[in-house]
Amino acid sequence: MPLSTADTxxxxxxxxxxxxxxQRSFTCSVNPVVLFSILDHYLRRNENQDRVIGTLLGVxxxxxxxxxxxxxxxxxxxxxxxxxxxxxxHHRTMYELHHRVNPKExxxxxxxxxxxxxxxxxxxxxxxxxxxxxxxAIHLTMDTTLTVAGRDGMGVKTYVSAPVGVxxxxxxxxxxxxxxxxxxxxxxxxxxxxxxxxxxxxxxFYYFVCMRVWAYM
Length: 217
Hints:
By secondary structure, the protein is of the alpha/beta class. The chain has six helices and twelve strands. Strands 2-11-10-9-8-4-5-3-12 form a nine-stranded mixed sheet. Strands 1-7-6 form a three-stranded antiparallel sheet, covered by helices on one side.
């Protein structure tokens, strides 16, 4: 489905966490398998793609104040200077297949590589917000330039959104940073513990992220 935005788009983003009016406390955790899946998607992208996106799956606490991101899958999309198109049929087909195997895991948001938030991010966020209604959609970003990852841990950040402006337009969106931690199971911790004994592969960034995940244990 094509999404478009006008040149007059109002887009705001804050780099420090804060609570918007009537915004409840909200936190999330992410399984390391999700981070590696996102990285694998990025490494397999088409040469003309600046970033890749996909759907996040997980479970919510009883009061919906905590979300555990357990899995993800990629969603084909195309961005140009004028519009962004997201393959929603692929998104829904993949979710139906995943839901048959893991019925407890639902759509909780979406991911994108890169650390920047733009007007297209707001449009895609609007789509996923409708998929997660009445709960907020989480947007996870993973930096792939190493610059943010080197300065701010793994370069992984998570957000929820809130409308801004007098008119209810999809692109009028405020991204609010929320706390996020990496959550391991015992088997994954044992596997990650062996990573520092290896050597960097041809995919230096993949090895780098492995090391950053290990540092968070």
